[in-house]
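Appendix B, record 7
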Amino acid sequence: MCRNIKPLFNFDPPATDEEIRDAALQFVRKLSGTTKPAKRNEEAFERAVSSIAACARELLDSLETSQPARNREEVAAKARERSAMRFA
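Structure tokens (predicted):
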């Protein structure tokens, strides 16, 4: 799967529509094999991004957990630490 798509569930504050759209865009790019579609495919590409973003929002809104919400800053800091150790 695409490494650029980050988990969006169970964060405080919740995922924004922009974050969900960005993840949908990455997914469609991965599936289509292109970062920018040809002119004649732009409409289908955008329709797919919008549809996947809507499904992702519906999924995130309907998921439940008993775990406390994670803090975005803490998760980002841990990821930076792992990256620094990995590429040091």
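Remarks on this record: The chain has one domain: 12-87. DSSP finds three helices and two strands in the chain.
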